[in-house]
Design brief:
5-stranded mixed β-sheet, binds iron/sulfur cluster, 16 strands, 346 residues, alpha/beta
Amino acid sequence: MTVRIDKEKIFELIDERRPRGIVVNAPGGLLGQTRGIIEEIEDRYGIPCFLIGDSCFGICDTVDDEVEKLDADLALHIGHNAVVQEIGKYTHLIDAVDDVKFDSVIDRSIPLLKGYKRLGLATFSQHLHELQPAKERYESAGFEVHLGKQNNLLFQSQTFGCDFSTIYPMSEEVDAFCYLGESEFHAVGVALATGKPTYVLDPYLDEIRDMKEEAEIRKRRSILSVYKALDADVFGVITGLKEGQKMLPRTRWITKRLEMQGRKVVQLAMRDVTPDALAPYRDIQAFVQTACPRISIDGFTFDRPVLSIPEADALVRLMEGREIGEYLERPKWIELTVGLIKEASR
Ligand code: SF4
């Protein structure tokens, strides 16, 4: 396999903008290649180019603030392809594309999927160009195949770890989802957000994996956390300090709801929500974080409940005497129940 970062776009941007300094960030798997590109930039243009060493998990990890701190004037955010090409004041998205093929794993999956008639396809940034060939291959095997609609952020059938808005609307039109790519992280999100059987098509191991068990584990743990939090008197409500994770209206909504239910709220703000970061706050019995939903939904190492936005929604429902509901089944895990956000910000 080769993941190809769009170097041509990088050089075009530099030629056009003539920056005095550049800040770059990339997810862990692309750091090696990114370092090579940084060396090329420095050799070719003789300008300082800083690789940001903090974690970079998603499109939310943009680094406009670092641009100003480092006296630069351009930021390159690599590998989280999206419909938008620029974010904030300085950041340009640089695509990365994986050339691995899915023909073999699709053929292998066909006998296992024969109980389904209608398939939905989804994938993440690096495999978007494989959706159409995959659709045609499944169709020629007799399946009815659906792709999700592009929106103002995501391409057709693309998902992020917290955003399933392209494929969620077709949940009722398909019997199962097939996720192109080795990422169980993304596929398990699809299984939880849509409530549909979801299979990873891993082109590297040439195998298909059912996400049912992984989704069930997360769902059970999540429900348990919500019920545990119901007993808490003191909550920490955490606002994320990463640029794309600052969700102050959500923080305000949750704080207001908890206070209305007689709970004490301690407001915290941090870049990385980890067990170590929460350890000093021993008097706090449960946390709600509005930064990244996957910190909670995949966070197996916290010693107290740490709820994400949909889980906080579920908690409030319980506090108000309503049913908990299928709270993870929604198009985006960064959005509260629509309408209540406005109400809280009055
Ligand atoms: S908030 Fe979390 S899941 Fe969403 S894009 Fe950022 S890192 Fe990914």
